Every structure is written in structure tokens, then in C-alpha cells.
Amino acid sequence: MALAATPDIRPANPNFSSGPCAKRPGFTLDALKGAFLGRSHRAKEGKARLNEVITRSKTLLGMPAQWRLGIVPASDTGAVEIALWSLLGARPVDVLAFESFSEGWATDILKQLKLADARVLGAPYGSLPDLAAVDADHDIVFTWNGTTSGVRVPNADWIRADRQGLAICDATSAAFAMPLAWDKLDVVTWSWQKVLGGEAAHGMLALSPRAVARLESYKPAWPLPKIFRLTKGGKLIEGIFAGETINTPSMLAVEDALDGLRWAERIGGLDALIGRSESNLAAIAGWVARTDWVDFLAEDPATRSNTSICLRIVAPWFTRLDAKAQAEAAKKLAARLEKEGVAYDIASYRDAPPGIRIWGGATVETADVVALLPWLDWAHAATAAEYATTQAAE
Question: 242 and 276: one domain?
Fold first, then answer.
């Protein structure tokens, strides 16, 4: 196999990691020089900045005014765990599991909380479960976008408006890049490290009035650690949703989050953020359509993520390999790109089928995605040639 020519153009920013994600265009550390450092986060100014993250986020996302939004520990994982341990158990629950993180929530519900009335509606990587099978009388736990599978729910039409249960949505790689149907959701979580390119450690927990009513009327049968507690004396701790965090936050990370939110406002708000992500997906989709060695992991075009864009290798030389060899080959392909300094951290997630995962969130410039595509062809050709040589020797 002839080697492809080395491309002439390189991405200006080679950071395509799915988390932590690329910083917003033009970011420098000067953006953080006004951070509220060396002071208590409980001081008036510290609390004000935390509350500013909350209010700017609500406005940018178009969150209904009656919803509460709080900053919680441990990134999106912490936000989801708080929701699961605080809210579940009052009703049967349906868990949609179609990639590694949603499978993790299913494990928590079945093996840690040990809920007897729990159903897992599963699907393999690349597909969605049967959404019509969800019971409106049950609580629902699902990811809006599968960060490790590149599969998203196309809409919220499958969630009934007259549902009796709560819809608990892990939206960490969807918030700020996909429209969220707030009228069909009751709990929404995300982290700062995804679409707006913030630093990690903190999670966002959004609660509808229905979720608040559950918190104030239901007490789980299990004990809750301090960082999970959202109520006191049967009432919501309102301060959590006004900047009084459960534990000590990084005010440097807070300043970074504010910088990302302000950038989003400057470029045109939510519509602009969604448009940037969709443009990145479109660039990759056009390339996939004319490329014979690669395809989307998501089988249905309507479910293809515009943030965590997952691709599978379909070239005959690759599909003839066993599973272990496929994983090694995919890693070699990604390593070639990293060695050239043109794409970092684009190997598939460790639990996902071997392939490529390119972050297409709003902080990624479409010009960089376009510049990356010839390099993917180059890396594939080089890896295929290596394996052809090895196989010939054998």
C-alpha cells in the first residue's frame, strides 16, 4: 500500500480531547488574572462570583426561571450521584444504558443503591435503547449524549409531558451544544470541562420544581454523606443554588468558568454555540461520506453527536484483525497523530469499540477540524501499511 503524502496544513489547535476539552479560542492565562484568590469563597465577593456562574449559565441555556441551579462537588459525576442517591427509591426506575457512563449509572442503581424496582433498557455502542419502552410512571435516568459512544437522543418527544416519574438527565457533553427540552426534564447535570472548555472539579445540578418537591417530600432509606445533602429539616437548602457551595470550590476554576460563559455571550449565545458544534459535525460527516475506511459509530444519522464524534474503522485490513489487535491498531493510529503534534487524545474511550473520537464542541474551530481530516487519512494509510508489512512477513 502506498503511503499518503504528509499533509501541508496543521490544525492551529491540536486539542481534540473529549474532556477536559479545548479552551475557548483566544484563551490565555491573562483571562484569569482577576480571579478571587486567597480569600474565602464565603466572602461577599466570592459568593457573588459563584452566583454569577449560576445566573449566567441559566440565562445562556434558556433555563426556566423556576428551576434551581447549583454548583456541586466532583464534576458531572458528583452531580449525577447526588441526584441518584437523593431522589431515587420513591418510584420504580428505568435506566437507559448505551455507553460506559450510562452503564455506570445502571451499576450504581442496581448494585449500590440495590433498587428492586429498576429496569435497565440497554443497547450496544452505536445504538439507542427502545425509547418507546420507557414507562411514564417510572423515574428515568439517561444521558442526553453518550460521550463515549457518540450517540445522542434526537429529541425529548419520547418523554411524556404527563409523566409521573422524574426525568434525570446527565447532559455533560450536551449542555451548551444541543437544545435541551426543559419541559420534559426534571434534573439536568453537566460539568465545566466540556462544551465551554472550563477546568474540572465542579459539577452543575439543575432541578425542576417537580424535583424539588420530591426532595422535600421523600427521604431515602439509606444515609446520605454531607456532600450529597440538598435538604435540611425537610426543606431545600436554597443557599446551594445561590452560590453557597457544599464544599470549598476553586475560585481559579470559577474565574475560568466565567470567562467561558462571557465568551459564549460575546459570540452570540446558545444558538452560536450549537452552530459551531454542528459545523464541526458537518465537516466530519462530509469527509466520512467520501472516505472508504471509516464510518460513524452511531448507526442512525439522527443520533450522531455533534460533540463527542465517534468513528469506527471499517477498512478490510482492520476488520480482519481480532479484537485485541484492533485495539492496538487504533491506538497506533492515534499515537501517530499525537507524535506529529496534530491531534491529541483522539483514541476511543477505553470501554468503547476501538476507533477514533474527535471532540467537536463549541470551543473547537471548524478550520482545525478541516485541517485534521487529511492527517487522519495519512495516519490510516501509514498504519495500514505497517500491518500489511507485518502480515506479509508472517
Answer: no
